[in-house]
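Q: Could you fold this chain for me?
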Amino acid sequence: MPYFPPVGGGVLLPNSIDNALLADMADGTVKGRPLGAGLGDPQDLTLAQLRALLAMPVAQCRLDYVSTTVLRLNRCNGCLLTIDNVPQVIPAAGVDLTTAGLTASAVYYVYAYMVGSVMTLGVVTGAAPVVDPRNGLKVKAGDPTMTLVGQFRFGADSKFYDQVDIRFTRTWFNDPGIAIQGASIAGSATSSTTSVELGSGRASFVAWAGEIASVMFSGYGSSNTPASVLYLSIGIDSVVSPAFPPSVVQCPASSPSYSFDMTNGGHGTLAGDGLHYATILASVNANVGTVGGGYLTGYVRGSR
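A: Sure. Below is the predicted structure, expressed as structure tokens.
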């Protein structure tokens, strides 16, 4: 530690103190003043304080499904999450959200906020999140102390879900996307001349506005009467309006019945946050059309 004034008298001259004469610093720190600390002496800033000073939002987390009773905010590619414009350390064990107080079949946004020094998760229905002008992160409308981390639909049976035909848990940050798959619709038939949902092969999922769902069906269909036609397509958020041009099986006029492989699919942009679904639609020109086998599969692309 240097002593001033210099031994023997004299004055301290500009540019006369090198790094060796400064007080020792802990590793991983820099000299500065924390944001909001006001006028005062230099301090050794932590990485979190430096990020806040540079207005660099961080989101090193992901909201994960753990069980039918627990969702968890876990660390991902780091340990920090900006909350109220300040980087906060995510606990190594994560932050849990339980089913207590939730309403069956409701869609919730999930937010992280601080209670003193404790990171906590809270849920909100209805109002969509807004952009925090301080850092560009999404926060609760009217309360920038709560940072958006995900969304989920609570099951009709008051459980959390994340299975291939019911993808009800989504993270906002570090989202790899989700694979979806409906149940087999083998043996499902229709005599409707307008598009109807066929069987119980629907895949339901939670998505963010603007995400793209890529879905397809592969199987085979049959018509049971000469010159009859089976039309098969996929509906996204609709049981009456095909998302893509239908695939067709037409029974020749000389044949009493006809079976043929069928595929259908494409890409659709999802209109809003919350619950969506993809399902198989079918119609005929007359008589009965049957799907002998197959199921819907797809992928919803993560964007963050």
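A (continued): Residues 178-300 form a domain with the Jelly Rolls fold (CATH 2.60.120.40).
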